[in-house]
Amino acid sequence: MTGEYEQTETLLEEAHEINLKIGDTDGIASNNNLFAVLALFRNDPDRAEKLSAETIRIMQERAQMSRVDDSLDILAGAAASRGEIRRAAQIWGATAVFRGATGVNPGRDERELIGPHKAAARARLDKAAWNQEWERGRSLTLDQAVDYALDGVAEHARGQR
């Protein structure tokens, strides 16, 4: 599987260079999320967070938050991989509401990529606690969910210094 990750990363780097060259900001943001998912699979939540946070900032600058759910999924996966299960559940709860409101459902590939992280996180918290955090996330507005997710990134970055 390591060879597949390396091949994927090489192809993503090539696409990223092209997107930079032609100034395709949407392509750059999309590539960042793909790099971030790859980082999650390589057990590098720091890189996954950094890339997804950068993607969210790009979307905020362009006022194009329509696909922020992918970045939130990744940030939740990074939080879960660090054992921040309650934070992850809240972010995933907020993402579910956003998807329900917009009618955007995760694609099959996305379910296969993020699903195992969500299932592992859910197994680490009792059902009542998971549901409580999920509902807390569902009560957040999209802006609140993004702020909450990015605050977690900032807290983690401060802790690394």
Provide an overview of this structure.
With 161 residues, the protein is mostly helical. It has one domain. The chain has 8 helices and no strands. It has helices at 2-22, 25-41, 45-61, 68-81, 85-102, 108-123, 127-138, 142-160. The protein is globular and about 50 Å long. The protein starts with a helix and ends with a helix. The model has no long low-confidence stretch (mean pLDDT 86).
Write the layout of secondary structure elements.
Layout: H1 2-22, H2 25-41, H3 45-61, H4 68-81, H5 85-102, H6 108-123, H7 127-138, H8 142-160
Which stretches of 5+ consecutive residues score pLDDT under 50? none
Radius of gyration: 15 Å
The number of helical runs is 8
Number of strands: 0
Bulk shape: globular
Biggest pleated sheet: none
* Secondary-structure element string: HHHHHHHH
Strand residue percentage? under 5%
| The number of domains | 1
Q: Helix/strand-derived class?
A: mainly alpha
Helix content: over 70%
Quote the average pLDDT: 86
Give the key terms.
161 residues; mainly alpha; 83% helix; globular
Concise structural overview:
With 161 residues, the chain is an all-alpha fold.
